[in-house]
Amino acid sequence: AQSVTQLGSHVSVSEGALVLLRCNYSSSVPPYLFWYVQYPNQGLQLLLKYTTGATLVKGINGFEAEFKKSETSFHLTKPSAHMSDAAEYFCAVSLPQAAGNKLTFGGGTRVLVKP
Amino acid sequence: DAGVTQSPTHLIKTRGQQVTLRCSPKSGHDTVSWYQQALGQGPQFIFQYYEEEERQRGNFPDRFSGHQFPNYSSELNVNALLLGDSALYLCASSTESSGPDTQYFGPGTRLTVL
Q: Where are the beta strands (DSSP E) in chain A?
């Protein structure tokens, strides 16, 4: 069975500063990896995903993440935080070649952006 | 192109009652998954429907059941509601026709059990 751990349930950053959200996973096979963002009272929006190929993945809104197999990590970064980045972020995994593509989520990291 | 839609947006029930939540997938999608998101937690997978059959199921009791219709829309039914069933219920759709798929989420239904 797969699992996801997000280090830090809350992160506070200043506007213009680096955003770094940590995600580690456990899986019996190399998984597919996803980052989703959730704004208050809304559903989840996909930021980016890694399936195969290049390990550095670029997503929407200036976010990127790097898949590091040796560290079983998929940390999310953004060079310069904007006030609109305040939201909750979820890391998730799914198993390739499995019937169905259920997502297993981490507990989430809430980002606060200070002016 | 309409995305994933869910109804109702909010729902208040009392313990012991039954509830039905509805989901229409994104156009062209044939697979629907349901997730439960308790306050302050990540979503938990309930089950997935494909070709009108339940294909995968998470660790949820039989009180949680579902259905998928020929037009790919889906319902989630919860019987004998408990206070702990209060949560945001998210529907996600995807398609088998392309590879390692992204699931597209709806806005959710907020269920409150009193």
A: 3-7, 10-14, 19-26, 32-38, 44-50, 56-58, 64-68, 73-78, 87-94, 104-105, 109-114
